[in-house]
Design brief:
Blueprint lengths: L1 E6 L6 H14 L4 E5 L13 H7 L4 E5 L4 E5 L9 H6 L6 E5 L8 E5 L15 E6 L11 E3 L3 H11 L1 E2 H9 L15
Parallel strand pairs: 1-5, 1-6, 2-5, 6-7, 7-8
Antiparallel strand pairs: 1-9, 3-4
């Protein structure tokens, strides 16, 4: 199992790109998993559903299973947000894990930048940046490869070239405390 990340400011198009990348990678006969960072108040459950009712009654963790899928919903109840290393360990075996967000972690990642967002590049001090996918191909990538945001095949090639084995990455990530979240650029939130 190998891991590559995709990071960029809000509105850069990370989710749209990852959606296209999954299709491209599946077309190459690769199995894919994703890990996505979300804002604190997200909820994937629906009021009135049994799992929601279990959580509302006080269940700390709900596991729901069928012949088609399994989902686990865990309430953190004031615990710290899980470390990326711990989240990666929860995944089943796949060829490639695409990590969306988790900008402050040091795993290798491709920066996603869209001009319409009006936000700057993340900057050369952002840990782990290995390439830049942007709709402004004239941008200098600070020594990193630059590819057009619409060239999904080329981005898939970059992702595969820069992905790293999961277990050594997890060990390396665990050596460091969970990094502080990178704030959105001033005036752009």
């Amino acid at each position: 199992m190998r891991v590559i990340g995709f990071a960029g400011w809000s509105g850069a198009g990370k989710t749209t790109l990852i959606e296209k990348l999954i299709a491209e990678l599946r077309g190459r006969n690769l199995t894919v998993a994703t890990v996505k960072h979300a804002h604190a108040g997200f909820d994937i459950d629906q009021p009135g559903k049994d799992t929601y009712r279990h959580r509302a009654a006080g269940a700390r963790e709900v596991l729901v299973a069928s012949s088609r899928r399994v989902a686990v919903i865990r309430e953190l109840d004031g615990e710290d947000e899980p470390h990326l290393a711990d989240l990666l360990l929860r995944l089943g075996p796949v060829d490639l894990v695409l990590v969306e967000g988790f900008k402050a972690y040091s795993h290798p990642k491709i920066e996603v930048h869209r001009a319409a967002s009006g936000k700057p590049l993340m900057g050369p001090d952002t840990a782990g940046l290995v390439a830049l996918a942007t709709d402004m191909p004239t941008l200098a990538g600070a020594g990193r490869p630059v590819v057009h945001l619409d060239d999904v095949a080329a981005i898939a090639d970059l992702a595969l070239a820069h992905a790293v084995e999961a277990l050594p990455l997890i060990e390396r990530l665990r050596e460091r405390p969970r990094p502080a979240r990178l704030p959105e650029p001033a005036g752009h939130a």
